[in-house]
Amino acid sequence: MSPNSPISPISPISPVSRKSSASFVNDVTAGLKPYPMEELSRIKSGLVKEGKPVFDFGTGDPRIPTWSPVRQALLNALPEISQYPSVKGIEKLAVAQEGYLKRRFGLQTGSDLAVIPSQGSKEAIFNIALCLVGRAGGKKHIIYPDPGYPVYRSSTLYAGGIPYPVRVRADNGYLLEPWELPLDVQKNAAAIWINHPHNPTGATAPLEYWRRVIEWAHKTDTILLSDDCYVDIFDAAIDDAIDDAIDTQFPVGVQPPVDQDPRPINPLQLSTDRVLSFMSLSKRSGLTGFRAGLIAGDPRIIAPYLNARANFGVGSPDFIQHAAAVAWADDRHVVDRRKIFTKRLATFGPLLQEFGMIEKIPSTTFYLWAKIPDKFGDDDIAFAMSLARLGIITSPSQWLSEGIRGYVRFALVPEDAHMQQAMGILREYLK
Questions:
Q1: Per-residue model confidence as pLDDT tens digits over 257-309
Q2: For labeling, which of 117, 132, 148, 236 is most exposed (least CB within 10 Å)?
Q3: 138 within domain boundaries
Q4: How many separate domains does the chain show?
Q5: What pTM was computed for the model?
Q6: What distances in angstroms separate CA 410 from CA 55, 349, 350, 352, 372, one per listed residue?
């Protein structure tokens, strides 16, 4: 080709090239399955292109307007000149997060407790594995619940660790019991993920369970990683009970002690030794697109983790931090969101109970982990695809687990009017 020849357009990747692409990336990347939420987006886009109405119960991204003071704070903080943010975060955000931890859990930052910001919880959950795999002389196992958040597994693989999923069951409240695991796994556990309220089942762990898990973590020198993304999503009636208790039993501004508090527990309320908690504004405040969260816990882990995070490029823009500070500092808008979720559970849950897909309606999170009726078999992917053809998007259990069949997750995120329409379609289909 001469220097003056026109440049030919890049041709599409051929099927042969696609098949051989594994040689250009490492085995972990080549072996990853499509991320479930991305697959759901693809299906949803196809329905929209076909002009079909879509009722999206798949992705946990509730359609509730963002609280207006948060939006205004973001706009007010937009700078004339853009500069790099710090992973440490701005002082306003630190004050707001510390205030939240004190109000909600009675926690006080200091020599025993540190807190740093994160870009939501996904990146923090992913990156912590890079810092923990190989600790304490070479511990490489990371234990996590199955079903559960797919990033527990992928982060472990990318960090060169050994994923150790533990199937959790309804008959014991979906509790991961690490003391029942093989002794070699317990000995070589770098960390363990506990997620309560649990995604996708909505199960909540009792106080005695948390005490036993912490005791086990100390005994085995395992870092307890608590995924607390849903810790502020619970039955709205509890808010009234808390208010009544504070009015009658506790001084104003003092929360009930952990053994008298009906809300979901954070393990930091029991111990900060070898414990990290990962929290997010995605569910608490509906700021899924803002990517704002926090990591709190043992300063002996937080300090080197913060140093490592400076290399990860995870500093949030300052205008996001200003908006996040407003959200962390306020509880009323969270109460309003709980009322919406409680109403949706009370509206949609009885339909699934009617068809034997759930036994009881959970009091936490906004998910319903539903068993497919026997007449449909146990192929949850086929069941979900059948519903998708009707415009109802759900998450099949095989996409949220490591081989669990026969369930689908409904995330109660559509607006009320759309939910009612979807319920009519679903009822006819299940009949």
A1: 899 899 999 999 999 999 999 999 999 998 998 999 999 999 999 999 999 99
A2: 236
A3: yes
A4: 2
A5: 0.89
A6: 11, 10, 13, 10, 12
